[in-house]
Design brief:
This protein is of the alpha+beta class. Helix content is about 35%, strand content about 20%. The protein has a domain of about 160 residues: Spore Coat Polysaccharide Biosynthesis Protein SpsA, Chain A. Helix 1 packs parallel to helix 8 and helix 5 packs across helix 6. It is globular, with a radius of gyration of 17 Å.
Length: about 240
């Protein structure tokens, strides 16, 4: 709901989705979820938002996880080109990966390793490791954005791994309630299911901090993304 130049991140992300004709959109809300009602979209609630994390919120909308599904964080905005690349992937689990992440991270942080995560790729484009704390830049072959597409088969894998973790009350050493989305993805990888990278190089933004909100690179990238959606009709 944070506004930059008078327009919220959510409105900007919706513009990109609508420009490609994606209309069946579900939002998971927690704190002040009433503020999301104005968008007229399907709203699912996480009543435990104060003591849970991303994976738990996702499964508050478990009944909507069917068919082909794109899952996106609420604090990002990505270009129409990135969305097109993701939609065109035939992988059962396709993860958008920023290959030019270092330049963007250096524009946001004095130390690019401070807020980066490991990402290691196999020769076939599959992701081998994701979401760990890196010791060096060499451990980062791209950066996870918080944008993933699942096929119906991929959702079966997702749900089975989650339900097993919930039954065992453990997801890679964390309680399922506290797990990050990268913990879930790594758990899927650990079970031997293929998770495929979709390499991207075009503009996207993540707004984690006040500094991100006010950063010139954020505003420049948002203008670029907005221009990509102007005068575009849904396909």
């Amino acid at each position: 709901m944070v506004e930059i130049d008078g327009k919220s991140l959510l409105n900007r992300q919706l513009d990109v989705l609508y420009s490609r004709g994606l209309k069946r959109i579900v939002i998971v809300g927690g704190y002040r979820a009433d503020q999301l009602e104005r968008f007229g979209l399907t709203l699912r609630l996480n009543p435990r938002y104060a003591d849970t994390n991303m994976v738990w919120s996702l499964f508050c909308a478990e009944d909507e996880l069917k068919g082909d599904v794109v899952i996106a964080y609420g604090d990002i905005v990505y270009s129409r080109e990135i969305l097109d690349q993701l939609l065109q992937s035939t992988a059962d689990i396709a993860v958008a990966i920023d290959m030019n992440w270092e330049r963007y991270w250096r524009a946001r942080n004095e130390d690019p390793l401070a807020d980066a995560e490991t990402l290691k790729l196999g020769g076939d484009g599959r992701i081998l490791e994701i979401g760990q704390k890196p010791k060096s830049l060499e451990e980062i072959q791209g950066q996870y954005m918080g944008l993933v597409k699942y096929s119906a088969k991929g959702l079966v894998w997702l749900k089975s791994v989650y339900q097993e973790a919930k039954s065992n009350n453990d997801m890679r050493g964390k309680l399922p309630e506290k797990a990050y989305m990268t913990d879930l993805l790594q758990s899927i990888i650990d079970k031997g299911f293929p998770v495929t990278a979709v390499p991207i190089t075009s503009a996207w933004v993540e707004v984690d901090t006040v500094e991100d909100k006010e950063n010139a690179v954020t505003k420049d990238r948002l203008k670029e993304i907005e221009q990509s959606c102007v005068h575009q009709t849904p396909s």
